[in-house]
Amino acid sequence: MSARPQAAYAELVTRMPAPAPGGALAGVARRWWLGLVQVLAGPAPAPAWRWRSAQERRAAYAALALATLALCILNAGTVHGVPALHGPPVASTNQLPPTLGQRLLAVALVAPLPLAARYPMLAWRAGWLALLLSPLVPAAWWGGWPWGPPQLLALAGAFGLAGIRQPRPALCWMWALTLIPWWLWLAADIHDLNGPVGATIVFTAIPVAVDSIGSRLRTQRALATQTRRAEAERAQRAVLEERARIARELHDVVAHHMSLIAVQAETAPYRLSGLPEPARAEFGSLSAAAREALADMRRLLGVLRHDEPAARAPQPQLADLPALVDAARRAGVPVELSAPAGLDRVPSGVGVCAYRIVQESLSNASQHAPGAAVTVSVGQDGRAVRLRVSNGPGGPCPGTESGPGHGLTGMRERVAMLGGSLSAGPAPDGGFVVSALLPLGEPA
């Protein structure tokens, strides 16, 4: 539908007066009125299905085109002429041969069906108008009815595809409007109401089934939306928790350095003889500032830790990787470590980040890829530390996130904090590789 009818419908909805407080009846009437407007001129909702591929879409369109062609041929083949030129056609044993115009009419009554693939509401509106107006044309079909069975099948299909995305008031209006032509034309034969009654029963069962399917689809969509929202919130919470954990670890590193500054500033007057009084005062001022910073850091730590106990051991560094690898081997993980000497000379923040990445990778490898060989390589130059953790075929990525874990989330947060880069992906041999580049300088 074009943008102009959509804008007109939106303007109508906004101009509708809101129900007064407690006016439940007014609210119901407003919903039903909007449902009628939606059915007659409102914007058509998107189809209830999504094509998974272009091949599936082409196959569905081809099947719908073939079904439409078959219905057109059947409808044109069952139409016949009637003596009367006006009014509802009457069954007659002396059927007249159909004219070319009547055959074209039979085709036109079914031709809008392909619109239901993309514009189901437009297809139903066209089918409904044909149901309402086609009896005015002097033609008749099997049984003397003013409509052919293929036309009714096409209308029922368009009704189902259009009504499955409509709210209940709009679906009820579609049902009521569809019954109007039946009672308008078939009830003219007062002596036999089997036609209108049977049509009413059939076209009552169809909306009930469509409403049931539509309600289920709406519930599934709402559940899927809620699930995506919960997943996004869970991922965001995991990021925040990981950042808090990183901040706690960095607090311990910074507190260690600040303690060294305070101790060195306090002991400098005793280690350095002959210091003038202004220099002694300066060292005292430095010590006081360092201890004040330590106190602020402890208060910050209390905010970050919440109910978690404070860590008593020093933060691990790259020099602790051999012990970590030995522990993994004792746990049954075949690990090979390749690391240069001098790993203890990297900045503490970089060392903690590298250690945690290797620790998380080994933990996930033992949990999700038992028995797969793991290789840990560490490289260092004057500008960065390079990490590479890979496992062989037979298991997922060492940093894969399976279940409630957030291994890759924590790795990315740590690397991003240092201004580095992290990559994780399948290896050509069927294994998986996690690589990290950790700059030794300030993050960009």
Polypeptide structure, described:
The chain is elongated. Residues 84-93 and 396-405 have low confidence and may be disordered. The longest helix has 78 residues, at 194-271. It starts with a helix and ends in a 5-residue tail after the last strand. Helix 11 (348-368) packs antiparallel against helix 12 (407-417). By secondary structure, it is an alpha+beta fold. The chain has a 5-stranded mixed β-sheet, with helices on one face. The chain has 12 helices and 5 strands.
Features of this protein?
444 residues, alpha+beta, 5 strands, elongated
Question: What is the fold's blueprint, element by element?
Answer:
Blueprint: H1 3-15, H2 24-41, H3 54-78, H4 100-110, H5 120-133, H6 149-163, H7 168-185, H8 194-271, H9 277-305, H10 321-330, E1 335-338, H11 348-368, E2 374-380, E3 384-391, H12 407-417, E4 421-426, E5 432-439
Parallel strand pairs: 1-2
Antiparallel strand pairs: 2-3, 3-5, 4-5
